[in-house]
Amino acid sequence: MLSIVFHQTEHKKSNEWETKINESNYQVFVRESDISDIKEIKIIHNFKGNFKKLALALNDIETNKKLFSSCSEARLLKRIDAQSSYQYFYFKMPLTISDRDIVSKVTIKNSDTTYSLGTSSTDGKMVVLKSKVIRMTQANTSWQFKKMNSGDIHMEYYASADPKGKIPKWLVNAFAIREARISIDILKKMIR
């Protein structure tokens, strides 16, 4: 297994992962979060694909608009160094729910056989908040990939977020698992 690249907080509730899906090459786990009522998600998956195409796709900020149907804007704000930058993402929500945005520090590390992309939300002060938009300031994601000797790609994905505002927590928890799988399926199609 690969290690998660960003800093997870020490869990006061329960750090036990609960299995939600357990298929031969695709597992989904959830656990309580200390930052919100939205559960943290971890996905482990092995699949076929071109590892070089994977790195190229994930290095492109515009890929976020392809992976997440609700993402209508993704742009580079400031490059920190060769591996890190600040990026802005805007998410168009259904009619009755306020749109969301986030300013994240994005860190990428890669080699010929490994690739990791970690995001960590910031206070968002680099971008003026639009009217009627809710800014997420507590969100982390991590994508970890390893090229296996078999030619398969081993992936570990982690997400933790507090979307803020008035959204039923049960709906967000169910939606997050569904959307993660859709995004992974889109990514697999992009790199085949």
Describe the model:
The structure is a single chain. By secondary structure, the protein is an alpha+beta fold. Helices cover 19% and strands 41% of the residues. It is built from three helices and ten strands. It has helices at residues 51-59, 63-67, 169-190; strands at 18-23, 26-31, 40-47, 71-79, 84-91, 99-110, 114-121, 133-135, 139-147, 153-161. Strands 1, 2, 3, 4, 5, 6, 7, 8, 9 and 10 form a ten-stranded mixed beta sheet that branches. β6 and β7 form a beta hairpin. The longest helix has 22 residues, at 169-190. The chain is globular, with a radius of gyration of 16 Å.
Question: How is the topology of this model organized?
Answer:
Blueprint: E1 18-23, E2 26-31, E3 40-47, H1 51-59, H2 63-67, E4 71-79, E5 84-91, E6 99-110, E7 114-121, E8 133-135, E9 139-147, E10 153-161, H3 169-190
Parallel strand pairs: 6-8
Antiparallel strand pairs: 1-2, 2-3, 3-10, 4-5, 5-6, 6-7, 7-9, 9-10
